[in-house]
Write a structure and sequence with these properties.
5-stranded antiparallel sheet, 33% helix, elongated
Amino acid sequence: MASSARQTKGTARAGSTARPGTSARKRRFFNYPRSHVKSFRRWLPSWRVLLGTFLTGTALVAGIVIAAYATTSVPAEPAYAVQQQKTTVYYADGVTEIGTFQEENRVIVDYATLPDYVGNSVVASEDSSFWTNSGIDLKGIARAMVNNLKGGSLQGASTITQQYAERYYAGATVSDYVGKFREAMLALRLTQEQPKEEILGNYLNTIYFGRGAHGIEAAAQTYFGVPAAELTISQAAMITAIIPNPTVYDPANNPDITQEKWQRVINRMAADGHITPAEKAEAVFPADTLKEKVVTNSKGGQAGYLLDLVRRELEANGYDGGDLDTKGFTIVTTFDKTMQDLAVATAESIPYDGDHPASPNLKPTIVSIDPADGAVKSVYGGPDFVTQEFNNATRGVAQAGSTFKPFTLVAALEQGIDLSATYDGNNDVEVPGFYDKGQGVKNFGDAKYGEIDLATATANSVNTVYAALNMEVGPEATVAAAVKAGIPEDTMDLKAVPSNVLGTASVHPIDIAHAYATFAAQGFESTPHVVQSVKRLDSGAETYDMPGRNDRVFEADVMAAATYAMTQVVESKGASGAPAKALNRPVAGKTGTSNDNKSAWFAGYIPQLATVVGLYQGDQSTQEQITPFGEYYKKSITGGTWPVDAWTSYMEGVLALPQYAEVQDFPEYTMKKAKPSPTPSEEPTEPAIEELVEPEEPVAPTTVTVPTDLAGRSKADAKAVLEGMGLKVSFTEEYSADVAPGIVLRVGGSGQQVEMGKTVTVVLSKGPDPKPTPDPSTPPTTPPEEGGRPGNGNGNNGNGG
């Protein structure tokens, strides 16, 4: 029995190791742990299992990679942010920068315009195999993986193409492994579809270089004040050295570290053959050309006011505000840098400290407009846009005072009333219909002038005469003349009431400047504007149709008479505008002082420029009497004090500029009848004006010579010149490859004598054939928004003396 059992047991063991063909038990499908292996080895997978697992895993990974690559495509458009370009706004010279509109400080440049070493400095520093790799660096990936697994400082292995893929298309940096895998697939695809030059160029236009600079062009301007195309080898290397950490490596923060990183870039450029040994030896850290790091508010001081006016005008003409910040334009304004500086210096000459300081609530304003086309040459609206965004010159309002009297004068002249017409200029004269019966009109200082003509009344700003004149022509005629000149119809308190002649309307200073520019242009009205041109950065295409001179709104003879009367405000002895006579130039204008001295003005012009200087005190809801200051502290502040003195000082600087050096005369005018100034029965505040002398009346010409110098000028200019000569104008167009649309090609009959009233044909360019001329945009017809109401407007306004 025992022998039989042992035999059976032996047979069982033998069966467990039986070879094929024996009657052994069938092996398990999943033989783990391995039953036929002894000790701990039975828990280890066999080499067959390991090999199979590896091959299976490799196939699986390869399949995933192949599938991922096959399903990866280059996005049709890059991320929104990397397309953003800043808009730069310049003064009228097109060179001096005022400021920018931007979400990101970026200007995109063509890689082909850059020296090779600019791109290669980045290649040497960031991805030395860039020009030959497939978009990813397998060695770099393996090296970074080993380092990271060992617990070393975290390393990346992104190539330039991978960085380009994540920033240019994803618009964000990724760090997780899934994101990196997708980034690698896109990098492989990009290398197959885009030239290396395009990849590097887009990368340079995308990345951040510190100090708010996005892209190589902004970086070059920010750090060295030059275009990227003009960077030296050393400058390019320094900018490249900053890329890994723009804050830490900024030379303003850590100059020693920056120089160390710069030297590393120079060494790598030489080692990789991007620069010669001689160029390496000559390379010097560019500290001498490095711009100082300045942290400022781009809208501080005057820049904010000017930029705000530019934005308002363009948005009113259909430009999207977001596009101005992101689409990239070059904007040239009408502002003259020297004139703007003069305006600021003049306005800020008011003493706000010392023995007789001005009130901190005082608001000085200055506006100059070119009468030829309405271009705003300077505007002072406040001391600092950051602390006071409200522009006192374009949004603030104050009662116009006697600056409104010329509108009544113009209305009278249009109705055939001559300057020689006489009126009662005494004080406290009852003018039927002006006030309630029994109430007389007061003159400034209760002055009595007797019977005087309109020229004398204008020089002395006699309220009683102008009250009577307004009732004669009709208050609605004064409103109509003001509106035609440029005062908006919706101006506060601009009503057809008797007292409107005394300036009860509350106006924007820029609107008074607009109206007086129409006088300076001898009746041609122009739309005030601050933008001269707008061009796209990407194409250079002009996208703005600048407003210019509009139609004639007042006849030439009316303007000649009105201008003559306003020259007496300056030329006559003791007149309120007499300080402006110091310029020794023909000057016309009008002082103005509102009720209770809450505003004071001098609105004056020469043939080439209209300038308004104004003062008011308080805010838009509550205005107060202007506090006397400085040398005027013993006087009431009127238009004949600081405003006319400031106007004269400012214009003295303006007239020194080459464009205003030529002395031009106003149209000749002859008084029909001489009227001596009467002796006042009581001593007036201001002396009487000099006697008006009657010159010989000129003979009007019947023929004129058609100008020969109109070719190359604008349609509006040609029309203005020809109509000003008494000719009619007919326009026709033809294609021209060399002349911009709307510019005069030739004028029929140039140089010939023709009868006044004859029609002259002007040929304008339609631009190159067959490209159509773009439709002009509609110019703005409304002023900037208004503020609140000043003053009480009771109509007893002074003469501004």
